[in-house]
Specification:
256 residues, alpha+beta, Structural Genomics Hypothetical 15.5 Kd Protein In mrcA-pckA Intergenic Region, Chain A, Alpha-Beta Plaits, 3 domains, 9-stranded mixed β-sheet, 4-stranded antiparallel β-sheet, 7 helices
Length: 256
């Protein structure tokens, strides 16, 4: 059971207004995401799989409500400490790293950070691509930025193997049929004969690479340079930084 947008607004409004009092009851999946265990969607999977207990009882219904400080919640038998210290990080992901929290054969993006909190990437950036990746322990933000219905923009700098024509750039801007359906319209701007910028409001699996292959070309370099209001800037590959207060406010505002 997913939290509705009205539930989201009412719950968070109550928490803001009542900031000096004890937190209200909250749904178990929201508790887990706020505590930095995982996203709300993943929390629902963990709950359904019987990996979460409340006060010694296994819970398998995601809508169950808990009190953040009075109830004892455990994940795989280990206590979950409720914390609302939210962090927001911008990482310049190098090629060769997998966007995952789970250990893989290849290195994962969390190997690049030394953060003593449970954090997770927002969305995906494929192994062969580089650029901006947001990482947070804010389950609500993760849910909103990861869901396709929220229309936030993602901008990419793309270099291809062969010179690209204006008509091919226009085809990508108008939308192309990949994976059985047509892509949404995009903003495309030429940089040079083999390089362009494209801004998407969706994120299908390897979408840009598939679009480029449709015009009989191949991607050489694919770098994400912006997510919503957050820009990559001159952050070196493999390095990360905390978002500024201004960036945090802009990002949270853009995700409403």
């Amino acid at each position: 059971m997913l939290t509705t947008e009205l539930d989201f607004i009412l719950t968070n409004s109550a928490m803001i207004i009542d900031n000096d009092s004890q937190p209200p009851m909250m749904r178990l999946q929201k508790f887990l995401s706020t505590a930095g265990i995982c996203s709300r969607r993943k929390a629902e999977e963990f709950i359904s799989a019987g990996r979460i207990s409340v006060n010694g009882s296994i819970i398998t219904r995601p809508g169950t409500k808990v009190h953040p400080h009075n109830d004892v919640v455990k994940f795989d038998g280990k206590p979950v400490e409720f914390s609302q210290k939210l962090i927001y990080i911008a990482l310049n992901k190098p090629e060769g790293y997998v966007t995952s929290c789970s250990r893989q054969k290849d290195p994962i993006v969390l190997d690049l950070l030394d953060i003593p909190l449970r954090i997770y990437p927002v969305g995906r950036l494929d192994k062969d691509s580089c650029g901006l990746l947001l990482i947070t322990n804010d389950g609500n933000l993760h849910q909103r930025l990861s869901h396709p219905s929220f229309d936030h923009e993602k901008e990419y700098d793309v270099t291809v193997a062969l010179p690209i024509s204006n008509s091919d750039l226009d085809r990508m801007a108008r939308g192309m049929h990949i994976l059985g359906t047509k892509t949404r319209s995009a903003v495309v701007r030429r940089i040079s004969g083999k390089r362009f910028r494209i801004t998407l409001k969706e994120g299908r699996n390897r979408q840009i690479r598939r679009m480029v292959r449709k015009i009989k070309n191949n991607v050489v370099i694919l770098q994400r340079v912006r997510i919503a209001t957050i820009k990559l800037g001159n952050l070196p590959k493999g390095k990360w930084r905390h978002l500024s207060e201004k960036e945090n406010k802009g990002l949270l505002k853009s995700s409403i």
